[in-house]
């Protein structure tokens, strides 16, 4: 009996090790990570030139829209990217307005997660899905802001999105000379379970993770819902579990890397170049191994969210806060993933959710 249990345990460990170390094939051209690095790094270089790194960081967040560029014909990919830019601008605006109403932060970000997840699922937006939309809203909601700065900051993020579209246009023209585009796939029928029910569960999980972060009085709670969303977006319970392991282990190693980088004598130019280098590595690695990419995603997000205040305090506080935020977000995301992929939960909760929707909607 004991030997049988031991054999099962060893087999389980081998299976987990296999999922952790599997490297996926990739046909992503090197030009894509390079262009993505420019989209997120050029705004920082401009901000460093004018000695306003805080402005460059906001535009750099908008430059992340480039990552959503599909491999479709030129007209389709540009329309898609401009729609992504509009969505990121809207999410950032919602987040920055919610900043002035602390009691509404949790419901607003939860609602943003629901709506963005619905849109991404309806239009079959690929990886990273709704992640960067919610990330933009979360960072905006917890960034120090005055009322008169709202139009300025929303405009800066919009300029970052426009720069991403410009870089995407030049990149697409150059790349389409080397390889043919893929046809734009037709949208399959939108089902209630996939578009509505899943999005509500995801949004509620994001809201719960943020509520827990606020109850615990975390200093940087914006990373908790982002970690939750990154985990719960797995296509299956197996994918959710594997993604959670990748996220936790990758973050732990990434924090060691961040610790080393923060110990360097950083200034505005070195931070800008580091963001460019990290972005290039991430986009080269993320399709091959998510956990390895998270090692570099961790310091990148620290720079994007806190670069303007780095050097004003001990990096130990940033490292400890990020680790706890990630663990809390992954725990809630894993619990949400169990609910999302539980047939019993889907049947019971889905039936109740359908009752809230008028019959004339036909869902």
From TrEMBL:
This protein's record includes keyword Transmembrane helix: yes
InterPro entries membership: Memb_transporter_dom
Pfam families per record: FUSC_2
GO cellular component: membrane
Residue ranges of the TM segments: 30-50, 55-72, 92-115, 122-142, 154-178, 190-216, 222-241, 248-264, 270-287, 292-311, 323-345
Subcellular location: Membrane
Protein keywords: Membrane, Transmembrane, Transmembrane helix
Annotated membrane topology: Multi-pass membrane protein
Domain Integral membrane bound transporter: 209-335
Protein name (Swiss-Prot/TrEMBL): Integral membrane bound transporter domain-containing protein
Naturally occurring in which organism (per UniProt): Rhodopseudomonas rhenobacensis
Lineage: Bacteria, Pseudomonadati, Pseudomonadota, Alphaproteobacteria, Hyphomicrobiales
């Amino acid at each position: 009996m004991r030997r049988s249990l031991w054999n099962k345990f060893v087999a389980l460990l081998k299976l987990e090790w296999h999922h952790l170390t599997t490297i996926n094939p990739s046909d992503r051209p090197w030009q894509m990570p390079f262009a993505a690095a420019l989209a997120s790094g050029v705004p920082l270089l401009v901000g460093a030139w004018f000695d306003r790194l805080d402005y460059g960081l906001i535009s750099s967040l908008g430059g992340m829209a480039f990552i959503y560029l599909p491999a479709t014909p030129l007209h389709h990919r540009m329309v898609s990217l401009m729609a992504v830019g509009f969505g990121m601008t809207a999410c950032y605006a919602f987040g920055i307005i919610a900043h002035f109403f602390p009691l509404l932060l949790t419901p607003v970000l939860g609602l943003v997660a629901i709506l963005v997840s619905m849109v991404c699922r309806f239009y079959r937006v690929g990886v990273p899905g709704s992640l960067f939309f919610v990330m933009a809203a979360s960072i905006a909601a917890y960034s120090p802001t005055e009322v008169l700065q709202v139009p300025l900051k929303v405009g800066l993020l919009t300029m970052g999105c426009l720069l991403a579209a410009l870089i995407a246009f030049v990149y697409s023209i150059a790349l389409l000379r080397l390889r043919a585009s893929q046809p734009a796939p037709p949208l399959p029928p939108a089902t209630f379970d996939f578009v509505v029910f899943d999005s509500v569960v995801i949004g509620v999980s994001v809201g719960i993770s943020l509520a827990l972060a606020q109850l615990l009085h975390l200093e940087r709670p914006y990373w908790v819902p982002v970690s939750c969303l990154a985990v719960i977006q797995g296509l299956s319970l197996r994918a959710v579990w594997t993604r959670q392991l990748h996220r936790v282990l990758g973050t732990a190693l990434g924090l060691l890397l961040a610790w080393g980088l923060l110990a360097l004598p950083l200034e505005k130019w070195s931070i800008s170049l580091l963001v460019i280098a990290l972005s290039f590595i991430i986009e080269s690695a993320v399709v091959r191994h998510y956990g390895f990419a998270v090692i570099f995603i961790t310091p990148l997000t620290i720079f994007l969210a806190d670069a303007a205040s780095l050097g004003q305090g001990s990096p130990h506080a940033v490292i400890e806060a990020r680790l706890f935020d990630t663990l809390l977000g992954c725990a809630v995301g894993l619990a949400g993933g169990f609910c999302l992929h539980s047939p019993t939960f889907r049947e019971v909760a889905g039936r109740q959710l359908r009752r809230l929707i008028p019959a004339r909607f036909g869902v």
